[in-house]
Amino acid sequence: MAAESPVRGVPPAPVVRQLRLVVEAADYEAAVAFFRDELGLPEEAAFSGEGDAQVVILDAGRATLEIANPAQKRMIDEVEVGRQVAPRIRVAFEVDDTAATTARLVAAGASEIAPPTRTPWQSLNSRLDAPAGLHITVFQELVTPDQGVATRDAESGRDGDN
DSSP H helical segments within the chain, as ranges? Predict the structure, then answer.
């Protein structure tokens, strides 16, 4: 049963069940091998159709949509890379070991843009240019979400209870 809208006569907002990022890859096989086999995204489904049409759906775990204004995008590039490099869209993958994952992805053909770098928000991030023309971040959280809030609050002078 759908939730009722707080405003009478206005239908409730839709509930999004999944975020899918659809990427066209000229070298489909290389892109699938990189993201499925090297990065480790499990294959959820694959389909083919007329005219050699192919698609694979890879499970990337929990999805979020991060929307940043231009100043934030520039700041993240500066922290992670030291210069402006990211195109308008960058895909980020949380992993358990940034250094090992970065080394594996570079060996599989990615170009390292910046090595694993500790950020002020307490993650270890590397930047790569990957197959299918994607600019990616591989990141490892160095603290739990609760610890991260306490760290950011301490850096800003807040006591963490606000």
Answer: 28-32, 70-80, 98-107, 145-156
